[in-house]
Design a protein that fits this description.
Helix content: 25-40%
Strand content: 15-25%
Number of helices: 15
Bound molecules: adenosine monophosphate
Number of strands: 14
Distance between the termini: 18 Å
């Protein structure tokens, strides 16, 4: 077996992992630990097409990762003979400081901790994941790959909020973006699929998963993205509002008596598709629409409307558009959302081919007509593979 990288994505109550051969992009084994710190934990480890599942309490991230390493030893593959050369960690917020992957050392850990105010929902768990992994796998280098890195060089005009400059500077309030690893991988792959140099393309990438974000990419560099200081801004998401008038916060605070934490929870966890239609999974929304549910219909309409606004805005920002690519859970699987999002955009040169667009997409694929001026693609995202490759590139 060639060299492998263990990619770890540590969330507040979960650890997802993949053991990857970066050169070929092969996933050797994968799994997840869920409901960490809750009464009943759940583990799944997949190796050679076989799932091993366990239900047992997992008190903390250290216990979870220790159990994962035991599963590698019991079920395989044995990590030592699998040629593990490094661990790559997904970190959501790297601030303006990190424009690429870095070897983890005490300074990097301190920086990730220091950036918690800018990534309060993710950085604490990312940090914990790195700390326990370094304890348990001390003999290999650990690399942090930041979700913000691809957007760290956004033009100032796109990164800057029209906020009092002194306040913004003192509290580092600016747009950092997120999902950068996915946008970077997908925009690079899209250029390969259309067979044109990345340097000459104006692209929009729509990463539509439970979290959702759009980016405008010119010549392989991001020039705008929809997520802002945190992943709350931008598109309608599974449970997040996306763009909303900030005065709604003042209104709810003054007139509904809601505190900041309650509004934070409302905007991040009880809004988006879930807030509008009761479900964050778009498959449920389609089911309700088919039953004539008006709230579900409105949820999809709001979702597509927001997407169309961003597509138009980014075409304007770039002075034109060559390639538009859908990715992530909804982008790859949901032909209805793809077609509703692009409805009426023929004036921009976007012509979807209904037959090519039909169904779920497992490999990169063109879904526009041959005469469409803009090539529309679906490219399944490979965030873990990208993290593994970036990790290896540092060694
Ligand atoms: P992600 O965050 O990329 O894993 O995407 C998760 C979301 O993708 C789910 O909440 C669903 O809304 C959507 N999704 C996953 N599978 C499908 C499918 N087969 N058809 C439509 N949507 C799907």
């Amino acid at each position: 077996m060639s060299s492998t990288v263990l990619v770890i994505n540590s969330g507040s109550s979960s650890i997802k992992y993949q053991l990857i051969e970066p050169d070929e992009g092969t996933v050797v084994a994968s799994g997840l630990v869920e409901r960490i710190g809750e009464g009943s934990g759940h583990l799944r480890h997949t190796y050679r097409g076989k799932d091993t599942t366990l239900a047992e309490p997992v008190p903390d991230h250290g216990a979870g990762l220790r159990r994962v390493l035991e599963l590698f030893a019991e079920v395989g593959p044995d990590l030592a003979s699998a040629g593990i050369v490094a661990v790559g960690h997904r970190v959501v917020q790297g601030g303006a400081r990190y424009s690429g992957p870095v070897l983890v050392d005490e300074k990097v850990l301190a920086d990730i901790e220091e950036l918690i105010p800018l990534g309060p929902l993710h950085n604490p768990a990312n940090l914990r994941g790195i700390e326990v992994a370094r304890e348990l796998l001390p003999d290999v280098p650990h690399v942090a790959v930041f979700d913000t890195a691809f957007f760290s060089e956004l033009p100032d005009s796109a990164a800057t909020y029209a906020l009092d400059r002194e306040v913004a500077t003192r509290y580092r309030v600016r747009r950092y973006g997120a999902h950068g690893t996915s946008h970077q991988y997908v925009s690079r792959t899209a250029a390969e699929v259309v067979g044109r140099p990345l340097a000459e393309l104006r692209q929009i990438v729509l990463h539509l998963g439970n979290g959702a974000s759009a980016s405008a990419v010119v010549g392989g560099r991001a020039v705008d993205t929809s997520m802002g200081m945190t992943p709350l801004e931008g598109l309608v998401m599974g449970t997040r509002t996306g763009d909303i008038d900030p005065a709604v916060i003042f209104h709810l605070h003054r007139n509904a008596g809601m505190g900041v934490d309650e509004i934070d929870d409302l905007f991040n966890r009880r809004s988006g598709l879930k807030g509008l239609a009761g479900h964050n999974d778009v498959r449920e929304i389609h089911r309700l629409v088919a039953e004539g549910d008006a709230a579900a219909r409105l949820a999809l309409d709001v979702y597509s409307h927001r997407l169309r606004k961003y597509i138009g805005a980014y075409a304007a920002v770039m002075g034109g558009l060559d390639v538009l690519t859908f990715t992530a859970g909804i982008g790859e699987n949901d032909d209805i959302v793809r077609s509703e999002a692009l409805a009426g955009l023929e004036f921009l040169g976007i012509e979807l081919d209904p037959e090519r667009n039909a169904g779920r997409v497992k490999e990169p694929k063109v879904v526009s007509t041959d005469s469409s001026a803009v090539t529309v693609l679906v490219v399944p995202t490979r965030e873990e593979q990208e993290i593994a490759q970036q990790t290896l590139s540092l060694l």
